[in-house]
Amino acid sequence: MNLALAWAEEYQNIHPNISLSVTGGGSGTGIAALINNTVDIANASRSIKDKEIENANENNVEPLEFVIARDAIAVIINPENPVEKLSLQQISDIYSGKFTNWSEVGGEDRPIVRLSRETNSGTHVYFLEQVLRLGDKENPTFFSPLTLLLPSSEGIISEVSQNPNAIGYDGLGYITDEVKVVGVSQVGSTEYIYPSVATVNSGEYPIARDLYMYTNGQPVGEIEEYLNWIFSEAAQEIVAELGFVPIIK
Amino acid sequence: MERKEAFQTFLITTFIRISGYSTIFFVGMILVFILGQGLPALKEVELSSLFSTRWYPIEGFFGILPLIGGSIVVTIGATLIAVPFGIGTAIYISEIAPRWARELLKPLVEVLAGLPSVVLGFIGIVSLSPFIREFFNLPTGLSALTGSLLLGAIAIPTIVSVAEDALDSVPKEYRDGAFALGATKWQTIWTVTLPAAKSGVLTAIMLGIARSIGETMTVMMVTGNAPVLPTGLEAIVSPIRTMTATIAAEMGEVANGGSHYAVLFFIAIVLFLISLVINIAASAVVFRETKRSEKILS
């Protein structure tokens, strides 16, 4: 995770006598390592599962959760597209292939071109589970096979900024002025919310997730100092620089 | 003294022999490796689902037909563009161009061959794909056509340099003979020089095709990577996903030893077989040609 790496680098600049090492692999890997007691801190972009807490307790590990930053995903379209807002259900129907023309969601008579990150991206999986399937695990909705899978965030921004037919999604930090962010409403709500630090922190914006750190029990010593630093203004500034949403203490 | 020379000869020939055999060794090792990693796919995934039309590996859909189809569509497109332009350029450089133009064109073609494919892909995203979308009035410019045009540009230098060498090695006497019989320049090129260099030109075309089917970065950037099985002519202007782009995009994040991993290696086997067929076809053609020309000479 970029954020964990940036934090570790910065922290070592301030405290040259402390050595931190960050290893990647995904949320499951990090939590598994915490359960096996091979790491001091596990970074995760999802909260720990009940099963994992059980496994940890069996190993005499008490996972303690800290929300250390938030990540919002903005739904973006071309500035020429007159559509201003979409409900979660409409976004789901667009990506599943049910809607194929912008006129079906209040836009012009244009074909919809769906853009997504590649399937290996955590953002892709999050979008599939929370938007396409509306958070329902039993929901069998898929991305339409016509969805273009682009290997980078920049590719999505570049295509959306050029193509009036396109719809895409991307982390808030990657969004530029060349694309238009749409307001999104929760299921069953008619209030359309635009992603921002304020709406993410208040929980109003529906496509946002918490980013976590887990420790074994109440942290002490160097780990406690590190976590305190993470909640400091300086560390949370790095959060904003990397395009995530800082948490307001 | 003599012994020393004999020893040197021995050293050098041994080194050259090892270099030669090492090619066979490396190809063999690669084959063994991808077969070892890819064949378990046949055990883990049923054949009927492996050869189905849905590719969504994170939920266990491993249909590789859209990927094979995608690779074939862009490669055919690239071949249709690269062969006429490549052979045309080679004929111009070797037969028609004045000396100064030849001196200028040859290094320029080399420069084109040295362009990193990521640069071409970037040009494709920024300028070619919007142009294609507006020109053909398509939903998106990230399509097989954009990929074909760029792959054509990548394959042209390969075709030009190999074909030009072949045309160059046609003895001057052949052309002089044709001119003496009253043939025009065009008749000489079409009926004498080109047929005489046929095997080299065919090798050039085969190498160009192999170059385009194996290209990864450019197609990943400009073809949209949507795993749709190409059916009918409109596939050329639709987004497609190639085998190479799939391997490149997914290999980095896949769990070692899982079925997704095995299927990606299975795709590599398919790619390997396709290049093998192209190479065998090329050498078969070349072999037949030599036999015929030998007959004529004898």
How does this structure look, described?
- The complex is a heterodimer of chains A (249) and B (298).
- Chain A has 249 residues and is α/β, with parallel strands linked by helices.
- Chain A is built from nine helices and nine strands.
- Chain A has helices at 2-14, 27-35, 50-58, 88-96, 122-132, 153-162, 197-201, 221-230, 233-241; strands spanning 41-44, 63-77, 85-87, 113-117, 148-150, 166-171, 180-181, 183-185, 208-216.
- In chain A, strands 1, 2, 4, 5, 6, 7 and 9 form a seven-stranded mixed sheet that branches. In chain A, strands 3-8 form a two-stranded parallel ribbon.
- The longest helix of chain A is centred in the first third of the chain and has 13 residues, at 2-14.
- By secondary structure, chain B is an all-alpha fold.
- Chain B has helices spanning 2-38, 40-44, 47-50, 65-96, 99-114, 117-136, 144-168, 172-180, 185-196, 198-214, 217-222, 243-251, 259-297; strands at residues 55-56, 61-62.
- In chain B, helix 1 packs across helix 13 (259-297) and helix 5 packs across helix 7.
- The chains are: A alpha/beta (249), B mainly alpha (298).
- The A-B interface holds A 110-113, 118-120, 125, 142-143, 145-151, 155, 158-159, 162-163, 165-166 and B 54-59, 66, 125-126, 129-130, 133, 139-142, 220-221, 224-228, 239, 241, 249-250, 252-254.
